[in-house]
């Protein structure tokens, strides 16, 4: 962390990494880093992380934002429906990408209406995944180190008792979480990251039906497993590697089931 009295701010260092630092500050920042080797190492690690994320997910940044997710369209829609989302929700919609693709059954036994509503939640989750997976500086609102606070806050906003799975056993660290607007109200969004920089997310929203089968949907670069259990719909999103994504989704699902069994 950069000292508040430093002539160089943390925002300037991130701008330096992103190539957005004003030209008239470049010399000062470069000189400051040369004089502060420990901070220079930190900045180098930030740059390396940024390059890994952009190398892995850079193609997603090139996707065209659909008309339904432009800022003007979001504002018009919210006003028409009497909603007033916070600025972060509209900003998120600016660069979200509508995830199309074929759907498939992992299990059977649900009505067409249930599939439609569940698929809508899955699409929203994939939009959020594609938006935040490329973020280096602000992928989440609450860091994973504040797990208890994050769980309490998001549970209160959704009106449901949420659980945040611990996926360290399969090599995934909790980055943190954030609150998002969902198709049925507020939604919770958790992000996990592997040692190689690969990211997965879990999206939770109010379920339209009390239960649904475990299903899979995939686009060109991202995919998701989704299901409903009780009053909550869950979506686990990640790169379009079905076997690996299924492993993550099953680990999350089984942990939630164990937690439910302990509480009942």
């Amino acid at each position: 962390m950069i000292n508040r009295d430093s002539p160089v701010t943390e925002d300037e260092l991130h701008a330096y990494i992103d190539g957005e630092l004003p030209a008239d500050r470049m010399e000062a920042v470069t000189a400051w880093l040369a004089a502060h080797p420990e901070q220079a190492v930190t900045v180098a690690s930030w740059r390396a992380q940024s390059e890994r994320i952009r190398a892995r997910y850079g193609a997603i940044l090139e996707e065209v934002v659909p008309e339904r997710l432009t800022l003007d369209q979001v504002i018009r829609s919210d006003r028409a429906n009497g909603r007033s989302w916070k600025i972060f929700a509209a900003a998120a919609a600016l660069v979200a990408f509508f995830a199309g693709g074929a759907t498939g059954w992992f299990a059977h036994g649900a009505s067409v209406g249930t599939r439609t509503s569940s698929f809508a939640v899955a699409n929203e989750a994939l939009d959020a995944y594609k938006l935040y997976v490329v973020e280096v500086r602000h992928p989440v609102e609450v860091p994973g180190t504040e797990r208890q606070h994050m769980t309490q806050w998001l549970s209160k906003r959704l009106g449901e008792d949420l659980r945040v799975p611990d996926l360290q056993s399969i090599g995934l660290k909790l980055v943190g979480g954030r609150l998002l607007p969902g198709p049925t109200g507020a939604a919770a969004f958790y992000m996990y990251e592997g040692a190689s920089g690969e990211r997965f997310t879990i999206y939770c929203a109010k379920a339209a039906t009390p239960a649904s089968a475990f299903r899979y949907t995939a686009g060109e670069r991202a995919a998701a497993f989704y299901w409903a259990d009780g009053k909550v719909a869950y979506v686990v999103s990640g790169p379009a590697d079905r076997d690996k994504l299924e492993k993550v989704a099953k680990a999350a699902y089984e942990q939630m089931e164990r937690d439910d069994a302990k509480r009942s």
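DSSP finds eight helices and eight strands in the chain. Residues 98-263 form a domain with the Protein Transport Mog1p; Chain A fold (CATH 3.40.1000).
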